[in-house]
Specification:
This protein is an alpha/beta fold. It is built from 6 helices and 9 strands, in the order E-H-E-H-E-E-E-E-H-E-H-H-E-H-E. The chain has one domain: P-loop containing nucleotide triphosphate hydrolases (Rossmann fold). InterPro entries: CblAdoTrfase_CobA, P-loop_NTPase.
Length: 195
Amino acid sequence: MTEGLLYIFTGTGKGKTSAALGMLLRATCAGMKVAWIAWYKEASWDVSEYRVKELLPTVDMFIGGKGFYFNEKTNAQQIGSVKVVKAQKIVVVDKTSEAEHQKAAQQSLELLHQLLEQQSYDLIICDELVQAVSQQLVNKQQTLDILQKRGKTHLVLTGRDCPQSLIDLADTVSSVEKIKHAYDQGIMAVKGLDF
């Protein structure tokens, strides 16, 4: 059995998830069975990629996130139990406890482990798993152990702040660097282009 390849899209720029969506489309067009696991985005969010299943019925979407997660490194203001980040005219809120974020991230990691054991997918996209590892929502060593047992399944991981241990394990790593971003000028993300 040929071992699946591990791809990582990381960095501070826009386009990591978009690149993964491109790989999903290409793999689906080539007849591959594809799964998508989201670590941060909530099922209740009106995110465009959640429509993939209705447009491409052979793709399975698993949405396990609890939304934005602001840890001690985030420049967030604490207002009661809510963390708030302001950028120009934009306000982003994290209402979920760290324990709830960790539980959701761990459940997604356990799902990935189950899917890899079943070996029923040719490609699994792990959207924001890199970020979940770097923000310590999931255990790094446990994640590495699971990724090393990927069998024939190809994996695509996205997220900022990729740890060196993930880079070392990967076959291909691309860094998407921010030069300029509309968000920094207070411009909200555009549905269909950014989410």
